[in-house]
Amino acid sequence: MIGLESVALDVGGRRLLDGIDGSIASGEFVAIVGPNGAGKTTLLRAIAGLHPPAAGRITVDGRDVSTMAPLRRALAIAMVTSDDVLFEALRVRDVAAIGRFPHHRWWQWRERPEDDDAVSSALHSLGLDAFAERFVWTLSTGERQRVWIAAGLAQATPVLLLDEPTSHLDLRVAHEILSLLRAQTRTGKTVACVMHDVNDAAAYADRIALLGDGRLAAFDVPDRVLASDVLEQTYGVAMQRLTLPDGTTRVFAAVDR
Question: Per-residue b/e over 13-41, b at no fewer than 16 CB within 10 Å?
Answer without folding.
Answer: eeebbbebeeebeebbbbbbbbbeebbbb
